[in-house]
Design a protein that fits this description.
Layout (H helix, E strand, L loop, with lengths): L2 H15 L28 E9 L9 E11 L1 H5 L12 H5 L6 E13 L2 E15 L5 E15 L20 E14 L3 E8 L5 E2 L10 E2 L3 E8 L1 E4 L2 E12 L5 E10 L3 E8 L3 E9 L4 E10 L10 E10 L13
Antiparallel strand pairs: 1-2, 1-17, 2-3, 3-4, 4-5, 5-6, 6-7, 7-10, 8-9, 10-12, 11-12, 12-13, 13-14, 14-15, 15-16, 16-17
């Protein structure tokens, strides 16, 4: 067996059995909705995003992730209150003119399709959130997401020493598991703080017909994220942020990010994920209709000797954007 394939196989087995079971996102900061349902309906338009991630390029069977997400507010009053546009988000006057949103509801849906080696996974969730104004400039929201996870093993691609192996059933096929997630999100003109959890039901995961090999589980994932906006000049702002992830029986992981925005037209940024990668990010708010982001991960783990890095592309559409915002006003 080639050394590169052996390293990859060991990494994937570790992730599936003991560590993070959800896909990794470098540009999560541009779509925290994927990890926190409390963001549902945070903006005064329909927020639609689609993404493609190709991890550890140069190797066969590496993780490939695609997703589509959409969420929107409920209530005409919330949308109408935005008729008077805020100042540019990267302008100093933004924080002074900011007003907390009216209490309102939000709904959403996301579908994630992830494939790593012989294992494929599809997650479809719907979400609901309620946003409450705590003061003139501060909101808090709470949300819930529920759905279905479908996991499958490409048994035909498994080569066994013995024709019958009790650990892998040749008729394992697909498994359907219920999914549940919760989250809270605190936000104002210059900061956000979020707590969320996914896979709270802890469903059993096995590809064997024998109870002896039915020890795998879909483990709960916990996320803490926070960020603060600093204004550097009349039209320039920077946002340092952090994401801390915890999965049972695995070490904490931390993403530290820095985003620099220019006149709400484009941004540049960098990120570091402990024990995994450095990342470079860039994006454009093309118009009040759509924006585009790209990131590249420079792998720092043992896979750096055989991988040429990770590419991630994300496209955002601002539908029913009556106020013609060129970037998010509540969520940045």
């Amino acid at each position: 067996m080639k050394r590169s394939y052996l390293i990859l196989l060991l990494q994937l087995l570790y992730c599936v059995a003991f560590a993070q079971q959800r896909p990794q996102y470098t540009q999560y900061v541009f779509n925290n909705y994927l990890i926190n349902p409390a963001i549902s309906g945070i903006e005064a338009y329909i927020d639609l995003k689609a993404s493609h991630r190709n991890q550890w390029t140069g190797l066969n069977g590496t993780p490939v992730t695609n997703y589509i997400s959409v969420h929107a507010p409920i209530g005409k009053r919330f949308i109408d209150e935005h008729r008077n546009n805020y100042a540019s988000q990267s302008h100093r006057s933004y924080a002074k003119s900011y007003q907390a949103a009216q209490s309102h509801h939000g709904i959403g849906m996301h579908a994630v399709f992830d494939k790593a080696g012989l294992i494929s996974r599809s997650d479809i969730n719907i979400s609901y959130a309620f946003h409450l104004g705590l003061s003139d400039k501060v909101n808090i929201s709470a949300g819930v997401a529920a759905g279905i996870s479908q996991l499958s093993l490409d048994v035909a691609g498994v080569t066994l020493e013995d024709t019958y192996d009790p650990a892998i059933s040749m008729s394992a096929g697909e498994q359907m598991k219920p999914d549940l997630g919760l989250g809270v999100w605190l936000y104002g003109p210059q900061y956000f703080v979020g707590l969320s959890a996914q896979q709270l039901l802890g469903q059993t995961l096995t590809f064997s017909e024998s109870d002896t090999y039915s020890q795998g589980k879909l483990l709960p994932h916990y996320f803490f994220t926070a960020g603060y906006k600093f204004f550097l000049g009349p039209d320039i702002a920077t946002v340092p942020s952090v994401l801390i992830k915890r999965v049972s029986s695995a070490p904490y992981t931390c993403d530290a990010n820095l985003k620099l925005t220019f006149r709400d037209k484009f941004w540049l940024g960098g990120s570091y994920r402990n024990g995994d990668a450095f990342s470079a990010l860039a994006g454009f708010n093309v118009s009040y209709l759509f924006n585009l982001g790209y990131s590249y991960d420079f792998t720092t783990s043992h896979l750096s000797t055989v991988s040429s890095g990770t590419h991630e592309l994300i496209l955002g559409l601002l539908l029913n954007n009556r106020n013609k915002f060129t970037c998010p006003q509540r969520y940045w």
